Amino acid sequence: MDNRPILFLDSGIGGLPYFQHISSVNPHERFIYTADRNNFPYGSKDKETLVHLLEMLIHALVSIYDPKVIVLACNTASVTALDALRNRFPDIPFIGTVPAVKPAALKTRSGIIGVLGTQRTIEDPYIEALVKESGRSVEVKKIAAPLLVDFVEHQYASASTEERLHVVSKYIDELRAAGVDALVLGCTHFLFLLDEFRKAASPGIEIYDSIEGVSQRLGSVLNKNKLRTSVISDCDNILLVTGKDDAEPVWKQRAEMYNMELKVFGRILEDKGKS
Ligand code: DGL
């Protein structure tokens, strides 16, 4: 039994659909969801820079919150830094968000799968390694979609259903023209647009995501390491944003929407420095 919190980390709101699902499956666990708004977006950064900033941030988070597990609710961070972080923090189990390339490669009938992600994720050799692991030789049409990440982070909340459908349609059109019949959402931000992706892709293109995979992996890590909480009550979860500036009003709305307490990490670090 272990009553410490589970830490989630993403550059922004991308991991919230993962948090929502996983916290509903594990209602007695305590969660701290960290949105690294200070370093958003991760996808345009090079590998060295991203590994360094994640090591620094996680070091600071661990010193304050002592999490029992860290979920990298971000494909870019997982693809880029999971191995480095496991080496750097060997006592903490890390759960990565791996693009669902393998199931897509196993199911495609056209033999062509699509992967939509950030520039960093798309250029990483990890995608090809996952295809190889599937044991099937499939063609991969990779598209970097930084504008879609930005849309979700900054415009999604105020966009209409038509606008949301419109932004995903151009990617689906390109993938359909390339013969893709299985599309992997390789960036957690895109889960906000899952309904729109499904609508635009139907019929003919199946959408794959990793929420269930991450949830099951977390469950087995909690069980295997005997890390489940012994406190049987509903928990106060925290939405933590990086930086020192006041959280913009939209963060307050998100905290309310997900029933979390909003905190600014830079302020917490300052207070700790004073005490
Ligand atoms: N949500 C992130 C991912 O899954 C990254 C978005 C970004 O910061 O570029 O890749």
Helix-strand blueprint:
Elements: E1 6-10, H1 16-25, E2 31-35, H2 47-65, E3 69-72, H3 75-88, E4 94-95, H4 101-107, E5 112-117, H5 119-123, H6 126-134, E6 139-144, H7 146-155, H8 161-177, E7 182-185, H9 194-201, E8 206-208, H10 211-224, E9 237-241, H11 249-257, E10 260-264, H12 265-274
Helix pairs in contact: 1-10, 2-3, 4-6, 8-9
This protein binds D-glutamic acid.
Notable traits:
275 residues, alpha/beta, Rossmann fold, 2 domains, six-stranded parallel β-sheet, four-stranded parallel β-sheet, 12 helices, binds D-glutamic acid
Structural notes for this entry:
The chain has 275 residues and is an alpha/beta fold. The protein has two domains: 6-97 and 212-274, Rossmann fold (3-Layer(aba) Sandwich), CATH 3.40.50; 101-209, Rossmann fold. 48% of the residues lie in helices and 16% in strands. It contains twelve helices and ten strands. The protein has helices at 16-25, 47-65, 75-88, 101-107, 119-123, 126-134, 146-155, 161-177, 194-201, 211-224, 249-257, 265-274; strands spanning 6-10, 31-35, 69-72, 94-95, 112-117, 139-144, 182-185, 206-208, 237-241, 260-264. The strands form two sheets. The protein has a six-stranded parallel β-sheet. The chain has a four-stranded parallel β-sheet with strand order 6-5-7-8, with helices on both faces. Strand 3 (69-72), helix 3 and strand 4 (94-95) form a beta-alpha-beta unit. Helix 2 packs across helix 3 (75-88) and helix 4 crosses helix 6. The longest helix is centred in the N-terminal third of the chain and has 19 residues, at 47-65. The radius of gyration is 19 Å and the shape is globular. The protein starts with 5 loop residues before the first strand and ends with a helix. The model has no long low-confidence stretch (mean pLDDT 94). Bound molecules: D-glutamic acid (DGL). D-glutamic acid (DGL) is lined by residues 10-11, 14, 40-43, 74-76, 118, 121, 149, 187-189.
